[in-house]
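Before relying on records like the one below, remember that each one covers exactly one chain. Contacts with other chains, cofactors or solvent are not represented anywhere in the record.
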Amino acid sequence: MTGRRLLLLLSAAALVSICACAASNSGYSPSPYPSANVGFYDGLSQYGNWEEVAPYGECWVPLDVPAGWRPYTEGYWVDTDYGWLWVSQDPWGGVPYHYGRWAEDDSYGWVWVPDDDEVWAPAWVAWRYGGGYVGWAPLPPDVGWQSGIGISVNVGEVDRRTARDSWCFAPVREFGTTRIRTSVLPPSRNVTLISRTTNVTRYDVVNSRAAERGLSLVLDHDAGRKFPRYQVMESTSPADMRGDAVRGRAIVVYRPPAAGVGSKPVRPSPQQHVAPSRAMIQRLDAEQRQFDQRMQRERATLGREQQRELKEQGQAHAPADQLRQRHQEELQAQQARETRERRALDQRRRIIQEMQGNRGEGKNRDQSKDQGQGKDQGHGRGQDKSQDNGQGKGQGDNSNQGKDRDRGRDQGNGGN
């Protein structure tokens, strides 16, 4: 009997050991929520640049993005235990959509403002819902998070602090699918859609982490269909830093390795320019050539939506003066958007040109320094040789002391 118990204990211990090894080799762990000590700023440098943007300080400006780009547009939404989570299709999206905030600057366009408190969320956005549409917009940087309480302002303040053009709207029927990106309406339509929807932003605290609950409640009640639910899992692998990975019914999100207590990441200096990639330069050149075509497509989409509304208004025999006035406001908003986007595109080109210039200056400095070192070394070897001739073979070995000193030096979703 004693031998049988011992055999059972040994078998259980071996099973535990095997499970532990499998978990350690999986690359990620089924933690109920991701924690963070954000030390990953440098990973963004190859896709953009750090600039001083008032009043936020050093902000990251994405450069490898299309004209008219806005945060939370290149990707899709999935439902998780922490609410609706944004799965980015941007090559750098594993960090800026879950930490920090986005802000639209008059010169740079959209910039990412890191959050020194390093708080993770499925997406830091506000939500609107109604009239068959879902809307989302990045929460402004001054909307903070209070541990154990939630976001620092009420819904009314969120509306007041969120610019009208920041909202993205799409039909409810397209929400929760991977094709949501192609269904987002032109921002000029926000004049109408904001008046047709209600702000349903609500963040709760779950396991001491931010969880979106407002949109989840209304969608579960009104959508008429079930959305697949995904489990959030965390990974410390740098390979998962670029974006969230969908693995079955799990979403793997990046969690940086824990650093020392009280340590804060240092934002890269705006002076620390990284040479732009050839792909980034080529994309910007193409975007400048295609900018007018993109804006023309937005105006065409806006025109079709307005014609549809006028037809529906006529069939209802309702007064059309108010509708025409709103359409005029939408056209004005479209013109203002085109002006801003052109300015941001020009600014991105200026930044890339500066990055290229700094790279060239750095090369010239390195070449001059190398030439100077070579000249000094050659002079030193000459002196050594003269000393060899004058002092004898016994000191000739000293000529080797200064010889060798040259410097060396980048899915699936059940909601389809």
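The mean pLDDT is 74.
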